[in-house]
Write a structure and sequence with these properties.
The protein is an alpha/beta fold. It is built from 5 helices and 7 strands. It has helices at residues 14-21, 34-46, 83-93, 107-127, 137-146, and strands spanning 4-8, 26-31, 53-57, 68-74, 94-103, 149-157, 160-167. Strands 3-2-1-4-5-7-6 form a 7-stranded mixed beta sheet, sandwiched between helices.
Length: 168
């Protein structure tokens, strides 16, 4: 089966175009940055996927009601204080799978992530960057389980948790 994909926080479209190259039937990306969305559209067109890819400027909590097979949230929950709202939006439209990456809040990774992200937030305040968050991964996983998803795979990439959650 060739999945349809929604990528929340699609940035410049790298993940979406890669998924199309690997066989996804359609990808729709949402990102806050109009500049990133413009790059994503050009990237999809250059790769020959203009008809299968769409990208729009929008909020990750406002994804509409159209069902997709997969929802991808790569390094997006850490950029927004509304992680639970974003998860709720993703669960509403994901028919089969949610994949996400977040800074791990547990164990020794959490012990490193919390002060590192706090220091980065202080630095970003001076240079005008956006705030980052280390959300409670246990709460994220409880939310997914409550939405009838179960973890089917996970890996750590450095201090990041990458998880795949399939609808039960």
């Amino acid at each position: 089966m060739r999945p349809t994909v929604l990528e929340i926080g699609s940035g410049t479209g790298g993940v979406g175009v890669a998924l199309l190259e690997m066989g996804a039937s359609a990808v729709h990306g949402i990102d806050l940055s109009s500049a990133s969305v413009d790059v994503a559209r050009r990237r999809a067109a250059a790769a020959g996927f203009e008809a299968q890819a769409s990208f729009e400027v929008g909020e990750g909590t406002q994804v509409g009601d159209q069902s997709v097979d997969w929802v991808i949230m790569d390094r997006v929950l850490c950029c927004d204080r509304r992680a639970q709202e974003m998860l709720a939006a993703a669960m509403k439209v994901a028919a089969r799978r949610i994949a996400l990456s977040v800074p791990d809040s547990r164990g020794w990774r959490g012990l490193l992530n919390h002060p590192m992200w706090a220091a980065e937030n202080v630095w970003d305040r001076f240079r005008g960057g956006c705030r980052g968050y280390v959300h409670d991964l246990r709460r994220i996983e409880r939310t997914l389980v409550g939405g009838r998803f179960r973890q089917s795979g996970s890996v750590h990439v450095g201090l990041w948790h990458v998880g795949i959650y399939d609808r039960v």
